[in-house]
Design brief:
Blueprint lengths: L1 H6 L20 H4 L4 H18 L14 H10 L21 H16 L5 H17 L7 H19 L6 H17 L8 H12 L7 H17 L9 H7 L6 H15 L3 H14 L1
């Protein structure tokens, strides 16, 4: 990191010093755990799939692009239980896959999809990652040191199989730093960003236009909190509306109604009214 800061040139995925390094007595390596969702699923697993199927790698031993139709037929034939968040969809859309789709591929689908198609040494390599991550997701963690050695071996073999040029920062995080985070914080789901991604989706749903998006998020988030947690006096005209508001998506006309009713709600909470006015002035 010091070298990158001094030369100004990116190296192994590092682009510069973090501002958190200026905080005294803060070890940013151990205090900021590697996120399994971004490093492993959206990082390493997505990168591996790109290497396997992209046409630019058609001369490589690991290329399976010519058999993508066969792989997709296998994938779409799977019938996962209802507990799975998403069902298999065409692999041609893999660049738009969400993290939980890559999780399903890594932990459940990868072996039956690629068996007999991906060369054995490459399949064994990705299965080493799959098996280790599955163990690290269990609530009763066992053999953490063994999992660490497996991830380290995965990282070393990655360079042998795919070349130094494909040794990305996510590979380093997954092979070296992930196990340290497990030692400090426990099973991977203890510090996964999956729950926060769901919150991001909710916030994005509060935006209905390009005009003052921050104010839109502020007002609708406050409205959401009021609707969900404020005790409304009985027989208030909007009591029924509050109960139904978040059950279904509202149309544009109903959105306008929300803003008019927001004024009524604010009469019951002066602090909310003050915050809305302050935010509007700041954004302007």
């Amino acid at each position: 990191m010091d070298e990158v800061h001094r030369t100004g040139k990116e190296k192994l995925g590092i682009v510069g010093k973090s501002v958190f390094m200026s905080i005294p007595n803060l070890d940013i390596v151990s205090r900021f755990p590697t996120d399994y969702m971004h490093a492993v699923l959206l990082g390493v697993m997505k990168q591996l799939w790109s290497l396997w199927v992209d046409s630019e790698n058609h001369k490589e031993n690991f290329s399976v692009g010519l058999r993508l139709t066969e792989i997709e037929e296998r994938f779409l034939s799977f019938r996962p239980p209802s507990s799975f968040p998403r069902f298999p969809k065409p692999l041609t859309e893999y660049k738009q896959f969400k993290a939980n789709e890559w999780e399903g591929i890594l932990l459940h689908y990868i072996f039956p999809m690629m068996y007999g198609i991906l060369p054995r040494e490459y399949l064994n390599h990705v299965m080493l990652l799959s098996f280790t991550i599955f163990q690290l997701l269990q609530p009763d963690l066992r053999d953490i040191n063994l999992c660490g050695r497996r991830l380290e071996h995965f990282g070393k073999q990655f360079q042998v199989l795919y070349g130094h040029q494909n040794m990305t920062y996510n590979v380093h995080l997954s092979a070296q730093q992930l196990i340290k985070a497990v030692h400090n914080f426990g099973t991977l789901y203890n510090f996964s960003l999956f729950p926060f991604e769901a919150g991001n989706g909710m916030l994005l749903g509060f935006r209905s236009g390009s005009n003052k998006p921050v104010v839109q998020l502020e007002q609708k988030f406050i409205l959401y909190k009021l609707c969900m947690f404020t005790k409304v006096p009985k027989r208030l005209p909007i009591e029924k509306w509050i109960k139904e508001l978040w059950a279904n998506k509202t149309s544009g006309a109903e959105n306008k109604q929300q803003y008019s009713l927001l004024a009524i709600l604010c009469e019951y909470d002066d602090d909310v009214n003050t915050r809305i006015r302050t935010t509007s002035k700041t954004s302007s």
